[in-house]
Amino acid sequence: MYKILKAEFIAPNVKSFIIEAPHIAKKRQAGQFIILRVHEKGERIPITIADSSPEEGWINIIVQGLGKTSAHLNTLESGDHLQDLVGPLGLPTHIENWGTLVCISGGVGTAESLPIAAAGKAAGNRVISIIGARHKDLLIAESQMAEVVDEVRISTDDGSAGRHGLVTDVLQDLMDEGVKPDMIVAIGPLPMMAAVSNQTKAIGIPTMVSLNAIMVDGTGMCGACRATVGGKTVFVCVEGPEFDGHQVDFKELGMRQKMYKKQEEESHKCFLEKQMRKIKAEQVAEEV
Amino acid sequence: MKREQPQSFNTISVKERLIIPRQVMPEQDPLLRSGNFLEVNLGLSAEQAVIEAQRCIECKSPSCMDGCPVSIKIPDFIQLICNKDFLGAADKIKEDSSLPAVCGRVCPQETQCEEVCVVGKRFEPVAIGRLERFVADYAMLHSNGSPVTPDKPQPSGQKVAIVGSGPAGLAAASDLIKEGHEVTVFEALHEFGGVLVYGIPEFRLPKKILRQEVANLEAMGVKFVKNFIVGRSMTIQELMEEEGYDAMFLGLGAGLPRFMNIPGENLNGVYSANEFLTRSNLMRAYEFPEWDTPLYRAKHAIIVGGGNTAMDAVRTAKRLGAEEASIVYRRSEEEMPARNEEIHHAKEEGVKFMNLVNPIEFIGDEQGSVVAAKCLRMKLGEPDESGRRRPVPMEGSEFTMDIDMVVIAVGNGSNPLISQTTPAIKTNKWGNIIADEDGRTSMEGVFAGGDIVSGGATVILAMGAGRKSAIAINEYLKTKVWSVV
Ligand SMILES: Cc1cc2nc3c(=O)[nH]c(=O)nc-3n(C[C@H](O)[C@H](O)[C@H](O)COP(=O)(O)OP(=O)(O)OC[C@H]3O[C@@H](n4cnc5c(N)ncnc54)[C@H](O)[C@@H]3O)c2cc1C
Ligand SMILES: Cc1cc2nc3c(=O)[nH]c(=O)nc-3n(C[C@H](O)[C@H](O)[C@H](O)COP(=O)(O)OP(=O)(O)OC[C@H]3O[C@@H](n4cnc5c(N)ncnc54)[C@H](O)[C@@H]3O)c2cc1C
Ligand code: SF4
Ligand code: SF4
Ligand code: FES
After folding, report:
1. Which of B6, B397, B401, B466 has a beta carbon 3.0–4.6 Å from B172's, enabling a disulfide?
2. Among B410, B433, B463, which residue terminates a domain?
3. Which candidate, B102, B112, B100, B94, places its Cα nearest to that of B39?
4. CB B274 to CB A222 under 8 A?
5. Positions of E strands within B336-427
6. A225 C-alpha to center of ligand 5: Å?
7. CA B74 – ligand 1 centroid, Å
């Protein structure tokens, strides 16, 4: 069992956890992830390690409640325990001094790109962060990002903060202003990563994306996480999660992510109903 | 181990023994069991076991023992069954095997001990596997769950790490703890047992058997660490240098699924056998949504391959509700590597066999889900390196069938994680770790055995390799002499 030391919502439906895991904290590098199970009958889900303290023996993960497992996870509080936790998994991000590094992120992807932006800065790059969200309330980690990079730019779909538009628009603005990115790291929802890769492929800027394939073991044993990169099948959990965005078959990955859509909805509904019953029962108990 | 002539407890003449029919093991009705995940075989009763034991004619030089990869003293334990000393029989088996309840269930007996049983030359062979299973189950039930712990050995002050909790790792741990070493088993997954928990289904090998074995080892002092991937959580060097392990045994298994490299293999609904079985067994997807992990429930599933893995997958698909579940195999039934019993059981459960057929492409719909398989019919040509006749495609035989799930069960390669993170450990061109007879690898103090060395093989061979390495590890810990591989 793995103890949750701290848990707090940092945006609607997005929760940040500090978890006791000294072994993992000591080993992990930027870009690596863990696989966890919330409870005895739970599924295994991959989550990026956003931060860690080797001295204090904890890791930080940031979770968006999407379906059953992430929603369940986000009901946990400090003092609760996770059933299982394994890591660090995946290959660390390859970092070098490229010159100008632009980190583009959306949703919880911003938390995932934080350690990469920090490592990029430490390697001597000029780092610019572009953060996108649908609405300003959904922005996360922009202040932490501002602490580690040279410049943060924000875009929202509805114009409630930063530039009204998409992250790709901000990237275009930057280049129109004369910035020449030497390397781009895009992490976030698949359509966003696909759009950025599409944009940068045309102009020849190397672009790295972090693929969130569905996983089971995370050790290369099952092949659930396979994706097509450069016409070849890769296992994202051991060969990734980061790949050359210009080579990724995003359409296939998008379809593979929806593989269990129907069952996931059923499972999520079951969970919500159970939660409702629990809340009702508590209310009844209070009234009595 | 040297074997003394056993005492005979059989009072029946040889002639009479030969006319006793081989005892039939009761099993769940096929119609019933193809809808549940409970164990198919129900085991012999004590009366049946004694009758079956009486069929053994106590050969002076028992060929059955040569057929068993770990040379279990078969006639000796069988005589103890004749004498109704079932616990004694279990102890006798335990001298050579650490997992009799498992091997009695899953060994391919018909090509090992029972194939060469003398009685089998003219009649049906003595049911050695079923007897082994019977005494192992009996012992588990009647030792109140607590193992017969021999007196705690004198601590040796040495630390051994076992990586992987499959049959190879468990067997090595069992032998090493008896020598007084501090033994820790590291496992990547959240349950212990390797393929025995994530691959082989509950209906063939109930998980509680493995839990019991692990509990027994724990009671003897073995430490078990789950969720720990050697190579990622810590490397081999770190374990030896920082954590002070004096020796290591790698029982990593052959955990890398092979695909066919044909178009459409990444469509939704196309699984490796490892994923399909892991979701079902380890993650209990068959109890979804009570358990959280989802799995396709197909109408028409095809499983590509002809080994035990393919049989396990096809029978699982059937149990998950498939109207039609078919084996697609490129050779004929004669060449199938699966155990006879599995093929027989699969047929009884309504599994279809499409032999001499090979898929060449999977076709998907707009959502990316598999809807059809394009196949070729095959015929058998000249024998290949494996001695089996090589399948060759028949011209103009292409046909397409509607399906909604595929499981690829064409074998496993070696997981490259350890060799990538520890270059000092040499591997061959298939990625298997190179080790000598006793499991010594190219890195001092590190031994390996089981599927990671041999390539996908059997439980009993993996167990045997674990035991052999345990002897060599002991020797190494005493002398610290290392002979280079
Ligand atoms: C390497 C890696 C790192 C990740 N890091 C993080 C992280 O730091 N924080 C975080 O919140 N999430 C992260 N994810 C995604 C996270 O694993 C999924 O959100 C989670 O598995 C969803 O499980 P669920 O049961 O809650 O939702 P489900 O019910 O399984 O899915 C809900 C919806 O999300 C989609 N979905 C399913 N699986 C994934 C997936 N793997 N990635 C994205 N969408 C998916 C489905 O299509 C479905 O519509 C990461 C994924 C990977 C592969
Ligand atoms: C579906 C299926 C059915 C089978 N049926 C039969 C049968 O009927 N009869 C028979 O005799 N044989 C059968 N086999 C073969 C048999 O199961 C294997 O030969 C045997 O399990 C190999 O044992 P092992 O100990 O070498 O490895 P495994 O059983 O594969 O165990 C290896 C363990 O090591 C762990 N591991 C790997 N890498 C690491 C790491 N870096 N750090 C920590 N842990 C790690 C894995 O998670 C796994 O738990 C079957 C195999 C399969 C897949
Ligand atoms: S271990 Fe396997 S081969 Fe050996 S006697 Fe038992 S069933 Fe036969
Ligand atoms: S070969 Fe058959 S009959 Fe002979 S000892 Fe072995 S089991 Fe008994
Ligand atoms: S998650 Fe199983 S191989 Fe990647």
Report:
1. B466
2. B410
3. B102
4. yes
5. 352-355, 357-364, 370-383, 389-393, 399-402, 405-408, 412-413
6. 5
7. 53
CA distance A275 to A281: 10
pLDDT in tens, A134-178: 888 888 888 889 899 999 999 999 988 888 989 999 999 999 999
Task: Tell me the CA–centroid distance for residue B451 and ligand 2, in Å.
Answer: 7
Task: Read off the amino acid at residue B208.
Answer: K
- Could you tell me if B270 and B406 lie in one domain? yes
Q: Are A106 and A153 in contact (CB under 8 A)?
A: no
Which of B226, B234, B293 lies nearest to residue A43, judging by beta carbons?
Answer: B293
Strand-pair category, A183-187 with A207-210: parallel
Taking one residue from A and the other from B, the number of pairs with CB-CB distance under 8 angstroms is 111
Q: Do B20 and B126 reside in the same domain of the chain?
A: yes
What ligand 4 atom has the least distance to the C-alpha of B128? 7
pLDDT means per 10 residues, chain B with 485 residues, are 72 86 92 91 94 93 93 95 94 91 93 94 94 95 63 87 97 94 97 96 94 91 96 92 95 93 95 96 92 92 96 96 95 91 94 96 95 96 84 94 96 86 90 94 95 93 94 94 79
**Cα distances (Å, whole numbers) of residue A76 to A3, A17, B75, B303:** 11, 9, 58, 40
- Provide the residue range defining the domain that includes B333: 259-410
Structure tokens that stand for B465 in this block = 């390799």
For residues B422 and B391, state if they share a domain: no
| Helix extents (H) in B83-233 | 86-94, 100-106, 119-122, 128-142, 167-177, 195-198, 207-219
B41-78: burial string, b at 16+ Cβ within 10 Å, e else: bebbeeebbbbbbbbbbbeeebebbebbbbbbbbbbbb
**Which of B109, B141, B173 is the C-terminal boundary of a domain?**
B141
Instruction: Using alpha carbons, list the distances in angstroms from residue A105 to A10, A210, A284.
Output: 16, 10, 44
Same domain, B406 and B419: no
| Distance between CA atoms of residues B436 and B443, nearest Å | 12
Q: Kind and range of the H or E element at A2?
A: strand A2-11
Give the count of domains, chain B: 3
Tokens 């790709």 sit on residue: A168
Token pair 């167990």: residue? B463
| One-character DSSP codes across A118-182 | HHHHHTT-EEEEEEEESSGGG--SHHHHHHHSSEEEEEETTSSSSEES-HHHHHHHHHHTT---S
Shared domain check, B24 and B98? yes
**A113 touches A103 (CB < 8 A):** yes
CA dist B384 and B170 (Å) reads 36
Bridge-partner residues for B376, per DSSP? B358
B6 inside domain: no
Same domain for B278 and B362, yes or no, is yes
Contact between B249 and B425 under an 8 Å Cβ cutoff? The reply is no
Residue B484 within a domain: no
Q: Do B293 and A255 touch (CB under 8 A)?
A: no
Amino acid at site B397: S
Same domain, B79 and B125: yes
Question: How high is the pLDDT of residue B151?
Answer: 67
**Domain of residue B335, CATH code:** 3.50.50.60
- HEC letters along B265-291: CCCECEEEHHHHHHHHCCCCHHHCCCC
Q: How far apart are CA A193 and CA A106, in angstroms?
A: 9
Contacts of B55 (CB under 8 A, 6+ apart): B17, B18, B20, B22, B119, B126
Same-domain check for residues B33 and B163: no
pLDDT the model gives residue B2: 57
